[in-house]
Amino acid sequence: MENPVGRLILKPKEDRRLRAGHLWIFSNEIAETSGADDNGGLVDVFQARGQFVGRGYYNRHTLIAARILTRHSEVIDTAFFIKRFRKALAYRESVMGQVRSGRLVYSEGDLLPGLIVDRYEDRLVVQLFTAGMEKLREVIIEALKEVLAPKGILLRNDTSYRELEGLSSSVEVIFGEVPSRVTIEEAGVRFMVDPFAGHKTGFYFDQRDTRAAARGLASGRRVLDCFCYSGGFAINYALGEATSVLAVDESEAALSLLAENAHLNGVENIITTERANCFEKLRNLAAEGERFDLITLDPPAFVKSKSKLKTAIAGYREINMTAMKLLSPGGILVTCSCSMNLADDAFQSVLRTAARDAHRTFRVRRFLTQSADHPILQAMLETQYLRCYILEAL
Prior knowledge:
Elements: E1 6-10, H1 16-19, E2 24-26, E3 30-34, E4 39-46, E5 52-59, E6 64-70, H2 78-96, E7 101-106, E8 115-120, E9 123-128, H3 131-135, H4 137-148, E10 152-157, H5 160-164, E11 170-176, E12 182-186, E13 189-193, H6 208-215, E14 222-226, H7 232-239, E15 244-249, H8 252-264, E16 271-275, H9 278-287, E17 292-297, H10 309-326, E18 327-337, H11 344-358, E19 362-369, E20 387-393
Parallel strand pairs: 1-4, 9-10, 14-15, 14-17, 15-16, 17-18
Antiparallel strand pairs: 1-3, 2-6, 4-5, 5-6, 7-8, 8-9, 10-11, 12-13, 18-20, 19-20
Helix pairs in contact: 2-4, 6-7, 9-10, 10-11
């Protein structure tokens, strides 16, 4: 059945970015609309001269007013999403092999803006960020059931992005059964995940490659893991034969989950957890003259909007400078930023300034970004948000 579709006409020359592969249309780029459900309804997008650009959805209440779903005039239904999900799965299998847990759909990176689907073995966690995807909820769920035959689907609609779209917040099992704890395996490491209340959808799949790289550096080292969450890095360090790991986080729930994961992997005797503010803990350790051979900084996004960039840069600079002071000669710093609004050149500048203020010299051993199940769309810099540098103190 053909979708009811409105029309959206762009101002002159505002189609250039879209034709290069970008998927967003900002409110000030629109000349007029007609016949459109302005709260997430489907629209056909046309350039000022009348040429078809693509089909997407429209929300007049947001700065990003429309998002492109397809460059063709095709029906957006269950069959459409089945095709897209199969492509997403095939891509991941081609670059990562058979992986039972990971991100199946990464929004714009999979040409499905506003949709996240994470796979935890035979359970799925779905996030709908936009009014447009919310309207397509039923066909999305039916398509997921067809492609993956999951035992359960959890809808984690509790992100702040939904508020910007005028949507309510909720967490609900909408198909089958989803337990409060799900066990997954990554590169031979087992993790217990809380899909209902854990960060993101329960686990940071985007750090898969960085965890693997960091584990290979741990042997014989005394490790400090800041912003440790449920132990993604800490468990890997312990299994990588670190002599000790101090894991620090403000969240009691995260540390409790880390303890479960340490026991699950038989490394509870290597890892010590501490509930503390990581900024304060780093300062205190420096004041006490402590030294570590390997330090990880994997903080939450400090830059949620460009207006907060200056404050966020100061925060990144402080934690990196203090961590650099704590490193032993030849020590390793694994430092990350998941702030989309902090560009790579800005993050590198932060690290250079931090090293200068710490009176330390470093070389870059490796740069990593988000794992392959979070594909980066070449035409959309916004799809690359994770930056990790492995630095060696000289």
